[in-house]
Amino acid sequence: MRVITEETFVREYRHGNRRKLLFVALCSSVAAAMFFVSLFFGPSGIAFSECIDALVNHKITDNKLADMVVWDIRIPEACMALITGVALAAGGAVMQTVLRNPLADPYIMGVSSGASLGVSIFLAFGLCIIPGLSQNYSIVVNAFVVSLIPMGVIILASSKGKITSGKLILIGIAVMYVFSATTSLIKIISDENTLSQIYEWGVGSLSSQSWADIRIAFVITVVGVTLLLLQSRNLDGINGGPKIAKSLGINTKFVTLYSMAIVSLTTAGVVAFTGTIGFVGLVAPNIARLFVGSKSKYLIPSSAAFGAMFLIIANTIAKVVLPTGMPCGVIASLIGGPIFVIIILHQRKKSLL
Amino acid sequence: MHIKIENLDFGYEPNALVLKNINLELTGPKFVSILGPNGVGKSTLIHCINKILVPTGGRVLIDGVDVSDIHIKEIAKIIGYVPYSANDTFPLSVIDTVLMGRHPHSNWKSQDSDLKIVYKALRTLGITHLSMRPLNELSAGQHQKVMLARGLVQEPKILLLDEPTANLDIRHQISVTKMLRRLSVDREILVIMISHDINIAARYADEIIILSEGGVYTSGKPSEVITADNLKEVYGVEARVVEDNGRPYVILDDALPMDGEEQMWEGN
Amino acid sequence: MDECEQNVPSAMDGYDRMVEDYHASIARKILVLSTSIVVLIVLIILSCAWGTDNSFGTAYKAIIDHIMGKTYPIRSWEWWQDHYIWQNVMPSIVVSIIAGAGLAVGGMVMQAITHNPLADPYTTGISSGACLGAVIAILIGFTFASTAGEYGILSNAFIFSLIPALLVVTISRRVGNSPSTIILIGIAVSYFFGGMITFLMMMSDPIKMYEAYRWQIGSVTGIKWGDIPFMATAVIITSIITYSMTSKLDLMMLGDDSAKSLGLNAEQFRTVCLVMLSVLIASIISYTGIIGFVGLMVPHIARFLVGGKSFFVLPTSMVIGSAVLVFANMVSHTITFYTEVPVGIVMSFIGAPFFLYLILRKKSQRQIF
């Protein structure tokens, strides 16, 4: 048996942690690089040199069209990709930890089904929670507010008695079914064009975001992820199981519900603008976990960085493959599915589940 | 009943063998106990015998026939297995769980004769009062007895048990081990039990096999293999072995510092 | 002195009592099963009477008369009534019975082979496969059948829904098909197919998209007598096969190691079940679309009522599955909310609260979750 001295032990631990930070740095740099790459692609047919020109000589260039396309369409879209990736992946990582289930994602508490319902109500009946807003903001407000209802129901339903992760997941499923059934009902009774609009919203899209939207989503995401990071020690305790958490002096119920509420709020803040983009929240944390392990302090930033990278790559590919605007959620699923299978095949023995 | 293990290798991953070149020969009726520290592959060895795992190299012969040539349904008629724990996601009642041990012998309809065998097993273990209870309501010890009962009703020629007394109180540790010993005599079967309790094993087993780091360290009669030197070498403990009724009895004195392990809280 | 010491002959005293208890528990289970059958029959008759002027009694009489072979003069009142029941109402009832039973069997087997109480017949991605097939037929017009249209959609849905199971079986052959592998691959396949569906939906015009969407919501209306034999055959054959395997399903629930030690090749059995299930569910789903909840919920209800033994859980699940779907179908005919509400949506509205109740009810003797 190899004997490990104290020095080597500490050194190896620090080294391991540095490797984890390296993973974060690597993903972030790739994401940053892809951010710039993605600016050169898009449906507007702006040439490469024009893009450079618009980037360098913002507002003073003569090519107003290129300037507008780059600064008001492409950069916001790329920013949204990064923000969404961060929010969904970090949310997924926390949900998986709290529920101790690698198949959990940030939507598991019904955010996506709630948001779809909110949007459907507006598109089909023209009802908005705050009347008199413009069409775009009515959708955002409806999506945001209604998407938080399932979470509220779940918190109410689990307020009595002790909560277990299995119970939470099941309640989440039940609530989600009711919401999506209601959405289906609305879709069925609405006419073809409305259905098409609802469907398109549901697929999720990163494009046509204004700078104001980006600012709101950015603030929500930064605040949300920071709050989650502050919980990382408690999350690790919960990950060890309810008894261990309790013995470490953690108020399991509060931390669980609090973290889930934060995740739902953050997710809702992003989803309201982009629609439901799937797969990132499920896959990014699982992949990050392979590299950095399950310690929340590293898992949350790694997932966030990987999520941002994944989504901006998917978005770039979407723009390259189909310039008329293929939703990047589709690309994320089409690339993510096979990647997921490959990971399963490689990792089965180390038991992902 | 005769088990012969020839040059058995097993690894969950190709280049990390858990068991290396195991050679063993066991002839029943006999009560054998397998001892050894954590993680040396005791359960893995048992799983290789009844074909739950397929060896990476070497072979296992039962009465001269390679197990890889026997259908597992046939193996189930010869070899019973009592796992350390079982899945109870969808719990059955105790009686139905135990009845399942009759599966290798019977068709899908349970006969009264099967019920009689089940009853005897429940009675032997003193759990008849639990027969209608769902499995997931039982305590760990009761659960373990149900698993034991299932192994018994299988009426095997060879019975493999993975720490059957781990969750039992001291009285039942003794009574269950005694029962296993009697079983090996009365039904003339080969009982192989993984255990962590050296004294129980030494008191009742006919033969003891000690595994260490991937291989058989030694095997033989309890009085031959339970020695202070062997225990020191395999488990890293300082122990005195005294004789009691012709059987060795171990008094554990201290855990020796092992490589990579340091005494942190001295003086206790 | 202690139990282990006692001799067998005197120890057999309690045997009779144990057997008595055991038989009593079996009798109780049979009683539950018979009650469910009665409930199912009542629901069927009620469905025929519902929404018409007929009382329960008249509907009952009309059904019995028809089965007895009684005929009426053409276009008489009785003839119309008979025609209405047998041509308009009965097909959807029969489909509900068949689909409900089939989905319940599918859910039960899937839960047993994946050791997962949340598994349902669609766990391996069958539903996304069927949707993709149907969507391709509706939106692109590419079909496997020589005729396009209705049967084109059907054949496409059927063939595509077999792909996910095929993938699971081939992929898991390389790594061993543990429950987690099946679930994970199912998720990946669902996402992949979901991506393709979304892509196609986004490319198409709203009218076709509406049609494609409508197909996905499970519904039992608009099914003719001629559609039934295929589905019925699939369900009957699979049920019989499953019935002959109930003891093996029990073994599966103990976990792979125990199953193997009792002589069941768990991996092989799982593959057999998967193949059988895909054919079963594919044959149902290609006619009805995706009806959720029956496959997930009904086996739990059945297990709650008759305990865990598959020998009783299977028939009870089938009957309850049929009853639930017949009921949902009845409700879906009653509520018209701008348009007829498809049974799939009704199922979610009935199922979800019930599910919630099961989870939240006070810890009782028999906890399901």
Helix content range of chain A: over 70%
Q: Most extensive interface, residues per chain?
A: A-C, 49 and 49 residues
The biggest sheet of chain A, with number of strands, parallel, antiparallel or mixed sense and barrel status, is:
none
Strand content of chain C: under 5%
How far apart the termini of chain A lie comes to 30 Å
The outline of chain C comes out as: globular
* Topology order of chain C in helix (H) and strand (E) letters: HHHHHHHHHHHHHHEEH
Overall radius of gyration of chain C: 23 Å
Summarize model confidence as the mean pLDDT of chain C: 83
| The CATH top-level class label of chain C | Mainly Alpha
Under the CATH scheme, the architecture of chain C is: Orthogonal Bundle
Q: What order do the SSEs of chain A take from the amino end to the carboxyl end, as H and E?
A: HHHHHHHHHHHHHHH
Given as residue ranges, the uncertain stretches of chain A (5+ residues, pLDDT < 50) are 349-353
Specify the number of helices of chain C: 15
Counting structural domains of chain A, the number is 1
CATH topology of chain C: ABC transporter involved in vitamin B12 uptake, BtuC
Oligomer: heterotrimer
Tell me the structural class of chain A: mainly alpha
Short description:
The complex is a heterotrimer of chains A (353), B (268) and C (369). Chain A is an all-alpha fold.
Characterization of this structure:
Chain A has 15 helices and no strands. Chain A has about 350 residues and is an all-alpha fold. Chain B is α/β, with parallel strands linked by helices. Chain B has a single domain, classed as P-loop containing nucleotide triphosphate hydrolases (Rossmann fold). The mean pLDDT of chain B is about 85. Chain C is an all-alpha fold. Chain C has one domain: ABC transporter involved in vitamin B12 uptake, BtuC, CATH 1.10.3470. The longest helix of chain C is centred in the first third of the chain and has 38 residues. The N terminus and C terminus of chain C are likely disordered. At the A-C interface, α7, α8 and α15 of A face α6, α7, α8 and α15 of C.
